[in-house]
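Standup notes, protein team

Yesterday: finished cleaning the Leptospira neocaledonica set.
Today: Adenosylmethionine-8-amino-7-oxononanoate aminotransferase structure.
Blockers: none.

Input for Adenosylmethionine-8-amino-7-oxononanoate aminotransferase:
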Amino acid sequence: MIWHPYTIQLDSDPPLKIVSAKGEFLYDENGKEYIDAISSWWVSIHGHNHPKLVDAVKKQLDSLDHVLLAGFTHPPALELAHELLEFTDWHFRKVVFSDNGSTALEIMLKIALQYFRNQGREKKKVFINFSYSYHGDTIGAMSVGGDSVFNRVFQSLLFQTKNFPSPACHDCPVFKSPHSCAEDCLDELEAYLSAHSEEVVGVVMEPLIAGAGGMLFHKPSVLTRLREITERYDVLLLLDEVFTGFGRTGANFAYQKAGIRPDMVALAKGLTAGILPLAVTLVREEIYKEFLSSEPMKAFYHGHTMTGYPPGCASALASLKIYKEENRLADVRRLESYLEEGWSKLRAEFPDKIKNTRVLGSVGVGELFTGKVQPGYVNPFAREFRRICQEKGVILRPLGNVIYVTPPYNISKSSLDKVFQAIREGLSAYKIQD
């Protein structure tokens, strides 16, 4: 009945039926317990079914379920917009609501293009993206993603972009050391802008970690230089923090680690901690001013039926309050230390099977040596690895040969130890094809 996402339709394992959850645990129909080591696609930053989140949604439903946001407003949307702008130190001045990361990214692209159109700058129509980036599965989001299994079959539908190699300090595209480079991976991009800036709308990037493209890490200084370049050439810096936002990298937002101010940022996932779908695009005042007009064609004609719906806003408000009151950044710092310890031990135990282990905030990653098998999302061992871990009561979903751990920030040390033991058993079973 269900067409499950990212699933080969023949010869796939039957889906695991989950009936309840609490904290870092999921429970199947037989009562078996599983540790959710990927936060159910990176959303459950407080663990599952946090009582304050559940209560906030129930309370909101007692008063207002839904009202359209075109020509109307309501207290949860007003309060959430204020809280988000304050939480980002008023670097942004407007909040555009949507319902998932892909649409938040689409909105960002459309606003960026129209920002220049409203100024009469018709030549600006090119977006710059990176080779291993992933921004979602809608047409615009796929267009600014890198070439991958996620979008390859749809290439004829996508608009053209200018693509550059993704910064990856653990596997540098220009063969430099992270300790000796001067962000040389951006030299080619800067040269392009120096010659073509009048055609470029913006640079789209996942800051510090390119997630679904392989959990590629880059230094904050890459962001710093990118901001300098885009400002110099009058190009917008558009950041996709759907994955990295709300503490993922050890700061509230990844861009803050670089001390920069992007022009727009897309947020989702941790925004509501997974309890309800909601996303936002935050916009700087300088951009909004170009839409502040009585001319009909300078308005932004984009919306969704559930844009800024009350229960979603209430859940985001509750999540942000929990994030602050329960000091999730302190949890992330502890988790970072545990992840470094766990991956360090695995690297020492399996030096012939695992490489490029890396940790940032709540994200811990290791890559399998693949031998003759092509690395990437469809690596055949990923399925076997998932099965081994699931049998041990751990939910992991490798990106091909890239094994990653992104648990709830407040996961217990004992649960994390079980996660690494499951990875250990998966690595023991792994055979490199020579």
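Follow-up from PR in the comments: The chain has a mean pLDDT of 95.
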